[in-house]
Amino acid sequence: xxxxxxxxxxxxxAVEAPNLESTAPQHGFFVRLYTGTGAFEVIGKRKLWYAVxxxxxxxCLLSMLLRGFTFxxxxxxxxxxxxxxxxxxxxxxxxxxxxxxxxxxxxSPESVVVVGSGGSxxxxxxxxxxxxxxxxxxxxALFDAFKPMGANGQPSKQAISDSAVSETWGxxxxxxxxxxxxxxxxxxxxxxxLRYERxxxxxxxxxxxxxxxxxxxxxxxxxxxxxxATVIGLLTILGFSLxxxxxxxxxxxxxxxxxxxxxxxxxAEHANLAxxxxxxxxxxxxxxxxxxxxxxxxxxxxxxxxxTLMDLALVQLVGVIVGTYxxxxxxxxxxxxxxxxxxxxxxHTRRVMNRRKNATARATQADEVSDEPETVGAAxxxxxxxxxxxxxxxxxxxxxxxxxxxxxxRTGRPSGKRDTRRR
Length: 423
Fold this sequence. Notes:
The protein is an alpha+beta fold. Helix content is 62%, strand content 7%. α4 crosses α9.
């Protein structure tokens, strides 16, 4: 029976994992994206993402302050007049309706749009609040100019309808929308604080505010009309953003559990690996969400025209894109920045860096010794060192790297013994 090896012999016979950075196969972009082995550096470039996110927020804030929003009639109040596009002389155009409105009332309408398609298409005229006399005068002028067709296929003045929304009603709608938004943010904050630790809660809530500001800024920048449907869609996409952020944070929490007991990766590297591992899930979730939204927009534009469905689809499309970006490139980098300010993560990072520095120094020293000319005594020493020398660990784990079992220095076969040195 072979004698048992001492503790020192076990240490010298164990071999560290080789540097897999250079030996690992180089896969294509989509393979690395699908496998999620940490090949994409997101956290390490967080200053870049902070700059990009800051620029986006700045543009949105300037747009909201300088351009403002285009509020719908439900928020500002006003009068809306609808008329079929099918008339006795053919299909009426938006420009023709605007001309009749301006000639009749001496002012321009706020907006004139065509809603729907085919025989059910209608022209919707939106203006500031009109008196009953002005509304009746406009209806008469539109009928005399176009003779719109009624349900029985004959020209009818009753085919021209009107409705008015007071400013008080618009104020109530605005107040209720703000209350709904505040309630959502409070409930989301409570859930995040109960589910995760403090720094994850702060990062998640900052991400929600980012999504809210950017989505609102896009509406202000492009000039989309803000309606009650927009508010409903906004609450929906904030929920989506929170869901996507929670997915990434769950993986970060799993990867960093007990991280302080090892020196293989820093906290930032664990978080970067978590982002890579959830890339495909975030992309798939976003695609699944975007497809029905695009279908809704197609139906709204080609079949029903602009309206409630279009408003709802627009805010959801913008929100899904913004929420996907923020959960990957804003939420997790912010979490890492907050955690790196704590003593636990700072000390652990220092330990990992010191270990890698010592490993690099040992590797350099071993290379220098092997390059010296051999004397009689030095040759024996070099051969002894070569038998016991270990390959230094890599600077950091390679994407997809697997642990390598210790091998015997004589046979090169697995020895089955663990390396007992402190890592």
